[in-house]
């Protein structure tokens, strides 16, 4: 069905099906901090696979333009085609602003001045600061020599505790991961500042409810002033230390850029843990990783195959499944006009798992990332988004996660002990509950 202005519009039934099978299950899992019970249920019912099938059905029926949903309160479009995805991402932040109403409502619970929800001059200043501090354009961050020893030390400590228990589970992994993250961001003095991470976790829980929960401004102020304090005392060799030394525009709000780091390193941990599960169940890929580690001359700074494994973990189970935009003015498409303030949703799992276009959509194929030229690839894979608003932490994340995996894998032989079925012979599940992944470990080579 088409609208007066030409863009296709979903029927009421299609809109309800989209909400029930795509939007609600994704939001229920927790967009800002995952809810363990909802993720477990999504895995049991394989809700992400169902969501992808619903998107395919919408695409089969509406072959042109972004699809406008039939919602009473808001103009909302869903992107179905690669060309439209590219158009939206390449034309961000104007006219497709990442500071959409629901994202502002959610993130303002803990980072009201963050780049992600800023516009205009403020966004420009904050984005520049982020790119500079995170060294976005470089495969190897300029602090690699001080950051990678931290990764190694925390990996060693983690392995020591795994040795005692004989098992690695998510709770043990993420606690150690957060220690590493705080050291990387602020320095060794912040290693055991669990309270900072817990304060943020509480605010992120509120953020899951976006508009529906009032802001706890006092708690937010306490959290932000603690971040500010940590920024002021950041140690040489940490990310915050280099940020402090930068000449920032008065609108850049440096301390307010840091909560996004603390927050976004958690999905990086999820991707690492899932990549470990993939590697231990895919012997051939694991052998290639071992070879890469043996041949490495970069001091773990650049491990292309392991980076590709992390990217593949993110393709299969994207940690940012919904990329959101909102139009800042009317936008004219080939098929019609999109109104101002229209929400635009890119549902990454649909593009990543569309088996009509990707013949091996449900297999673990890190090689895809080594041969892929993102500029001419005809099918978009966007775990870190794309275009001018893409994730400025991408390279840093890939450097740190691949190094962590290399340290874990070289010293222990892990086996998957939890019940998930991951095999090179069968399609990989649409949802993988990282909370319930468990590994046993014995010294490598035994
Ligand atoms: C697996 C880990 C991560 C993934 C998959 C990821 C992915 C993303 C995605 C999809 C976006 C949204 C871009 C858009 O709306 O188009 C984003 C934004 C952003 N990410 Fe990440 N991210 C990760 C970790 C990190 C880390 C660790 C940092 C910082 C240390 C970081 C910093 C940022 C920032 C500052 C933005 C806002 C960019 C802007 O609005 O211009 N990310 N990330």
In short:
The chain has helices at residues 12-28, 36-45, 47-61, 82-90, 101-107, 120-134, 144-165, 170-186, 194-207, 217-232, 239-244, 258-281, 283-295, 304-316, 348-352, 367-371, 394-411; strands spanning 67-68, 76-78, 96-97, 167-169, 322-327, 331-333, 336-338, 343-347, 412-416, 438-443. The protein is an alpha+beta fold. Protoporphyrin IX containing FE (HEM) binds at residues 98, 115-116, 127, 130, 134, 260-261, 264-265, 267-268, 271, 314, 319-320, 323, 383-385, 389-393, 396-397.
Q: Any overview of this molecule?
A:
By secondary structure, the protein is α+β, with helices and mostly antiparallel strands. It has one domain: Cytochrome p450 (Orthogonal Bundle), CATH 1.10.630. It is 51% helix and 9% strand. The protein has helices at 12-28, 36-45, 47-61, 82-90, 101-107, 120-134, 144-165, 170-186, 194-207, 217-232, 239-244, 258-281, 283-295, 304-316, 348-352, 367-371, 394-411, and strands at 67-68, 76-78, 96-97, 167-169, 322-327, 331-333, 336-338, 343-347, 412-416, 438-443. The strands form three sheets. A five-stranded mixed sheet has the order 1-2-8-5-3. A three-stranded antiparallel sheet has the order 4-10-9. A hairpin with a 7-residue loop joins strand 1 and strand 2. Helix 1 packs antiparallel against helix 3 (47-61) and helix 9 runs antiparallel to helix 10 (217-232). The longest helix is centred in the middle third of the chain and has 24 residues, at 258-281. The protein binds protoporphyrin IX containing FE. The site of protoporphyrin IX containing FE has 27 residues, from helix 6, helix 12 and helix 17.
């Amino acid at each position: 069905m088409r609208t007066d202005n030409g863009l296709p519009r979903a029927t009421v039934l299609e809109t309800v099906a989209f909400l029930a099978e795509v939007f609600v299950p994704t939001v229920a899992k927790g967009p800002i901090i995952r809810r363990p019970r909802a993720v477990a249920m999504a895995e049991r019912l394989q809700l992400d696979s169902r969501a992808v099938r619903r998107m395919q059905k919408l695409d089969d029926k509406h072959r042109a333009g972004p699809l406008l949903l039939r919602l009473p309160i808001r103009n909302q479009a869903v992107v179905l085609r690669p060309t439209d995805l590219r158009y939206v991402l390449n034309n961000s932040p104007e006219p497709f602003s990442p500071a959409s109403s629901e994202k502002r409502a959610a993130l303002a619970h803990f980072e009201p001045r963050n780049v992600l929800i800023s516009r205009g001059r403020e966004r420009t200043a904050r984005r520049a600061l982020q790119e500079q501090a995170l060294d976005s354009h470089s495969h190897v961050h300029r602090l690699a020599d001080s950051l990678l020893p931290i990764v190694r030390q925390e990996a060693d400590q983690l392995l020591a505790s795994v040795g005692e228990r004989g098992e690695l589970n998510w709770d043990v992994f993420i606690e150690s991961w957060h220690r590493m993250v705080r050291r990387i961001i602020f320095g060794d003095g912040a290693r055991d500042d669990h309270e900072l991470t817990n304060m943020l976790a509480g605010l992120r829980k509120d953020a899951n409810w976006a508009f529906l929960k009032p802001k706890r401004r006092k708690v937010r102020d306490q959290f932000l002033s603690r971040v500010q304090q940590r920024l002021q005392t950041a140690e040489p060799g940490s990310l915050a230390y280099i940020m402090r030394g930068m000449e920032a525009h008065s609108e850049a709000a440096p301390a307010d850029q840091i909560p996004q780091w603390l927050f976004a390193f958690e999905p990086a941990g999820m991707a690492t843990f899932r990549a470990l599960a993939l590697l231990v169940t895919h012997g051939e890929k694991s052998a290639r990783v071992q070879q890469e580690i043996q041949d490495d001359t970069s001091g773990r700074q650049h491990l292309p195959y392991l980076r590709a494994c992390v990217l593949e973990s993110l393709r299969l189970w994207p940690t940012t499944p919904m990329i959101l935009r909102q139009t800042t003015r009317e936008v004219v498409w080939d098929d019609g006009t999109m109104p101002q303030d229209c929400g635009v949703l890119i549902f990454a799992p649909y593009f990543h798992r569309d088996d009509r276009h990707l013949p091996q959509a449900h297999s673990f194929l890190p090689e895809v990332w080594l041969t892929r030229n993102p500029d001419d690839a005809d099918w978009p894979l966007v775990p870190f988004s794309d275009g001018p608003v893409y994730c400025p932490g991408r390279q840093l994340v890939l450097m740190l996660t691949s190094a962590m995996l290399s340290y874990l894998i070289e010293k222990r032989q892990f086996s998957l002990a939890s019940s998930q079925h991951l095999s090179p012979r069968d399609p990989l599940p649409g949802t993988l509950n990282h909370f319930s992944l468990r590994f046993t470990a014995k010294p490598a080579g035994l």
